[in-house]
Inverse folding.
């Protein structure tokens, strides 16, 4: 099977640098008068710049390139979300029926964890890159095999995935608005919702996305996806996000209604994500297109982040179109600079509203601890909990001065355990735990904020016990 994009796609300067102030939640402990001037520097990496508005900036990653020092250097410096380019696909993870192969995907997940990035899982059910044994199945046998695949893979990565592309590219191109005719579609029109239900049961904390291409503007195909998402929301089929691949070139430029299209999906109550961005071209034209896409995401509160489909042009699935942000030598292109600058203009944009990734209503209402005024930093916690587990988002806010490092302390209830964290380095997994900044989010401008999160089993904590920071 081939992929047809041809048609539509086509400082503050402080004299007290290093001073550490500790502020207990709800109680202010601040030293004598400290004076500051100036404002924080703009962030200098894609990930840090996106984090300033609560978003991520990701890339597709190939496991076999992790031994390339240039590649690994850019990956770990710039990106806060990682998508395995091929390693989580059906042919890679289940080469023989019921025999699972996770080594390459696990390497990518381990790299993501080591650099404090999150992972987008891609993809559980797709008509392409199916193993031969699945291609030869049909009907009930294929349906069962597909659902078993979804269950097994989502279970293997339970608690480690920010969002799964549960179903990829299930709609036909062109004006029909029909489902793509595939072996999966032939198992019955309800195959998509069956896949989403299986994924939710296997990993209740992962956001579940539908992902497609040629749906980046309003057209017959995106209208059909829209109708499906609306229907799923109405009937309670678990779906949390829609991925817009955003593969662009001169034949298929960034649609004029790109932002409006993202916004209309967001209005359905799903998060929107730009999942596979690449834009063929060079120079200013390419840079301007990247600006448009980036600004569109920043302008839509529910746009959680942007993932580019590879690091250097030479890493791209369509390398000849030089569609990425770094050249073959790993140098930053004009498109990189325009993207970074656009992200850095985002300081005042509204952070995305997150959809609770849970099937059952939260058993613990969101709890916040009031930010202590005048402290070095404060931290506010919100919880989404379900029977047996929870996801916590913590907003760390700098006080009247910029900070360069921070740490948040809290105590997990007895019997609860931390399973993983993102945008922070965790110490401890039960009882008293601490979360320190990672390389790209230590610096917070005066009055600014950043977010990190963690996941655990048992019952959620309801408050932070303190926030400590070094002044910048
Ligand atoms: O086609 C671009 C993307 C469209 N949306 C879904 C994505 O999953 C898709 O990614 C591409 C990968 O970038 C390619 O790397 O999916 C292709 C397969 O449909 C990937 O190509 C495959 C080649 O077809 C294989 O021959 C090769 O063994 O990559 C494999 C690993 O390099």
């Amino acid at each position: 099977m081939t992929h047809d994009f041809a048609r539509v796609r086509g400082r503050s300067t402080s004299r007290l640098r290093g001073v550490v102030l500790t502020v207990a939640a709800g109680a202010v402990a601040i030293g004598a008068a400290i004076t500051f001037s100036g404002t924080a520097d703009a962030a200098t990496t894609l990930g840090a710049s996106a984090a300033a508005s609560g978003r991520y900036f990701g890339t597709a990653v190939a496991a076999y390139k992790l031994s390339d020092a240039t590649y690994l250097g850019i990956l770990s410096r710039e990106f806060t979300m990682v998508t395995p380019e091929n390693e989580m696909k059906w042919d890679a993870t289940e080469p023989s029926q019921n025999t699972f192969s996770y080594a390459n995907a696990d390497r990518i997940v381990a790299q993501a964890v080591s650099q404090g990035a999150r992972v987008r899982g891609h993809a559980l059910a797709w008509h392409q890159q199916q193993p031969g044994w699945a291609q030869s199945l049909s009907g009930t046998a294929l349906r069962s095999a597909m659902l078993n695949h979804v269950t097994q893979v989502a279970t293997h990565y339970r608690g480690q995935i920010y969002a799964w592309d549960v179903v990829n590219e299930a709609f036909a191109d062109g004006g029909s608005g029909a489902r793509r005719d595939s072996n999966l579609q032939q198992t019955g029109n309800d195959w998509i919702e069956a896949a989403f239900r299986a994924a939710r049961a296997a990993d209740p904390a992962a956001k579940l996305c539908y992902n497609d291409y040629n749906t980046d503007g309003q057209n017959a195909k995106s209208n059909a996806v829209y109708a499906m998402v609306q229907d799923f929301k109405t009937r309670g089929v678990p779906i949390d996000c829609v991925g817009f691949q955003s593969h662009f070139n001169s034949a298929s430029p960034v649609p004029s209604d790109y932002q409006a299209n993202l916004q209309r999906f967001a209005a359905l109550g799903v998060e929107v994500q730009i999942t596979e961005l690449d834009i063929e071209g060079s120079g200013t034209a390419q840079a301007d297109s990247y600006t448009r896409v980036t600004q569109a995401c920043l302008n839509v509160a529910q746009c959680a982040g942007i993932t580019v489909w590879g690091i250097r042009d030479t890493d791209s699935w369509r390398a000849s179109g030089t569609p990425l942000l770094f050249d073959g030598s790993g140098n930053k292109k004009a498109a990189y600079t325009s993207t970074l600058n656009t992200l850095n203009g985002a300081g005042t944009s509204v952070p995305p509203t997150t959809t609770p990734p849970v099937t059952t209503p939260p058993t613990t209402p969101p709890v916040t601890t009031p930010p202590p005024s005048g402290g070095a930093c404060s931290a506010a916690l919100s919880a989404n909990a379900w029977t047996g587990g929870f996801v916590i988002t913590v907003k760390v806010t700098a006080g009247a001065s910029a900070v360069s490092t921070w740490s948040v302390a809290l105590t997990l209830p007895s019997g609860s355990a931390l399973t993983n964290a993102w945008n922070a380095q965790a110490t401890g997994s039960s009882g008293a735990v601490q979360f320190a900044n990672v390389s790209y989010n230590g610096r917070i401008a005066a009055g600014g904020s950043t977010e990190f999160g963690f996941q655990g089993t048992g019952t959620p904590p309801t408050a932070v016990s303190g926030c400590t920071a070094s002044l910048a």
Notes: Residues 157 and 203 are 8 Å apart (CA to CA).
